[in-house]
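User: I'm writing a short report section on ligand binding and want a predicted complex to refer to. Could you take this sequence and iron/sulfur cluster and write out the structure as tokens? A short remark afterwards would be nice.
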Amino acid sequence: MNNQVYTFGIYLHRKFGAKVHKVGINISGFTCPNIDGTVAKGGCTFCENDSFSASTDRVQELKGFYLNLQSTTNPYLEKQLLQLEQQFSAISARQRREYGAQKFLVYFQSFTNTYAPFETLKALYDKALTFDDVVGLSIGTRSDCLEDKTLAYLAELSKTKEIWIEFGIQSIYDETLLKINRGHDSANVQEAIKKAKSYGLNVCGHLIFGLPDETQEMMLKTAQAAYDLGIDSVKYHPLYVVKKTALANEYLRGDFTPISEALYLDTLTKALLMKPENVSVQRVTAGINDASLLAPQWCSDKNRQIKNINSELKKHGLKY
Ligand code: SF4
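Assistant: Sure. The structure tokens for the complex follow:
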């Protein structure tokens, strides 16, 4: 009998006694300081800045309009709130219909969802919490973009709602973060995680295996460091190459070799075996099944990836 990996779904079901789904939201007007030039231009080398796909109903009027932490006005707030409502309504209805979802976490997913004036963030977070059967929020952001005021507000919300912050940790090695043009170092992420935890917030850490020049030992050291920081949940991803990115150019020049599926499976299994029992798992792989994927091809078929992951885990008495 294989032991079930402790998934985020299990965590949520135990806590809320219902099937809770995350509803991924993509608000127009949001960007990232690693894209808009505040920290750097171009973003992380693997980031295709238009690839976020929570929804296709981007508000046309907002094309070319972007917020940042210095923005003093936001003439499009009403439109963003409407967009939030429409996306939630469409996606949650589908999740109820197709998967039997009963409750929801609104997941501000695309770009950096604390990178806007506080009033805008507050309005969006507050609105999301008014929707039917919403138990809380999950907010994807960068470690260099979280102001004390926002943290304090989220801590206040967390007294009655389920509040998560998701940070891209990616690697604890600064030389790797430089190679992927991350725009912050590892110390910055570590500080941000500790700070979010000190505010009583739940933290999910995102890890990438297969970053440029990283050995398996480095990947596992990153996983261990993330666990040691006290993350509550984790997402594991293989690094795959999407067309029209800086990483695609490196790959085409022969300067980057994607991780093999065998190495990914072995690293993932080891990372899961090292994981503290209380850390829930939100994702064990990633990929894309359209023509934008350049390499590796094993990242093109999610079902096959999960099947192969389960075959590997089975050898170690685990199942996902
Ligand atoms: S931090 Fe996220 S949104 Fe910003 S460039 Fe990197 S991957 Fe893209």
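A remark for your report: The first helix runs from residue 8 to 16. DSSP finds ten helices and eleven strands in the chain.
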